[in-house]
Amino acid sequence: MICKIHDKIKETAGQLFSRYGIRSVSMDDIARELSISKKTIYQNFKDKDQIVMMGVEQHIEKEKKEFGEVMRDAENAIDEILRFSKCLRKNIAEVNPTVLFDLRKFHPQAWEKWLSFKNDFIKRTVLCTIERGKKEGLFREEIKADILATYRIETIEMTFDPKIFSTEKYEFIELQMELLEHFVRGMLTRKGYDVYEELNNTINNE
Amino acid sequence: MICKIHDKIKETAGQLFSRYGIRSVSMDDIARELSISKKTIYQNFKDKDQIVMMGVEQHIEKEKKEFGEVMRDAENAIDEILRFSKCLRKNIAEVNPTVLFDLRKFHPQAWEKWLSFKNDFIKRTVLCTIERGKKEGLFREEIKADILATYRIETIEMTFDPKIFSTEKYEFIELQMELLEHFVRGMLTRKGYDVYEELNNTINNE
């Protein structure tokens, strides 16, 4: 029973955070949403920081699973990136961008956890995709995969900085899609160009 | 005569800074190089900071002139970027990368000057080039020029951060060239792809 309510709190908190950001959601809000007392929450979690940390861990597991499925199912490296792009679009639509700002500012440990996931796991994934694309003749042979993988990670970072891309001026999702498309296109061989255009058209007409 | 020695000091200091970085070059070094007394330097410049600021101003003027010539002479937007790339390669080979690190750390006013040049002037130039390329049918019509110009400026910034690209691991020039080539390629139409390959081959065989 404790286990059930524990998971329920984590789940509901995650939903509220995704919708409104972390800072704006208090322990009272979570209790109210679940129609339980704040005491019950504190019987299950030390503090909000712990709920946030567990939420981040859960999110990381979910992303790892999704990434694994994409890599397994994709026909080729370009298809892989287009499928990642679809996941990314879904994640962005579901999560209020404030979440990451709040994480960095108010939950440094959970932020570090996310950062190291992003830097290690996503970088490894990007490296694999680039190598796959090279083998398939879709990405240019001479590409320095390591430089481009680091570049890609830092680009994602960049889009979260409102001093660089003002949140008033740019739609977050538009920004991500523009930069991801540019990233893939920058790697293409002529054959890759054709495959990209074809797959991209198929997806856009779906 | 004062004017001549003033320019001579500025010129020599600029050469020493380019070669060894700013921090490593003292007023004594500049005096020694010119076989003049330190007093003569201080009769012409308030302090090292002022020499650095004037050096930055001179460098900016030189770059503006070079950029103007490139835009005037280039056959099309891709040629423009390849010519910029050549200038960049030349500048990198001539200037010790420490200069920019020292500038940021020890000469904040001169750094601000360079930063605002980079952010305003280079951004405007990139915007012009993108618009030109679109009109010529070489860059994709749907590109958000403003996003990509900001992205490009921030990419340049990124390459100066040793926490991102370790100076031990990456050759600075290799890094710049890889990312510039990727940047152009990410914008190409099919027609642009052909023009790029042709122009790039011509340059590489020169």
Description:
Two copies of one chain form a homodimer. By secondary structure, chain A is mainly alpha-helical. Chain A contains ten helices and no strands. The first copy, chain A, is elongated and about 60 Å long. Chain A starts with a helix and ends with a helix.
Using the coordinates shown, work out and report the CATH topology of the largest domain in chain A: Tetracycline Repressor, domain 2
Using only C-alpha atoms, the radius of gyration of chain A works out to: 19 Å
Can you tell me the residue ranges of chain A where pLDDT is under 50 for at least 5 consecutive residues? none
**Chain-averaged pLDDT of chain A:** 91
Oligomer: homodimer
CATH architecture of the largest domain in chain A: Orthogonal Bundle
Count of discrete alpha- or pi-helical segments spanning 4 or more residues of chain A: 10
Shape of chain A: elongated
Q: What is the CATH C level class of the largest domain in chain A, in words?
A: Mainly Alpha
* Number of separate strands of chain A: 0
Structural class category of chain A: mainly alpha
Largest sheet of chain A: none
Most extensive chain contact? A-B, 26 and 26 residues
Distance between the termini of chain A: 44 Å
Strand residue percentage of chain A: under 5%
Protein name (chains A, B): Transcriptional regulator, TetR family
GO molecular function (chains A, B): DNA binding
DNA-binding region (chains A, B): 26-45
InterPro entries (chains A, B): Homeodomain-like_sf, HTH-type_Tx_Regulator, HTH_TetR
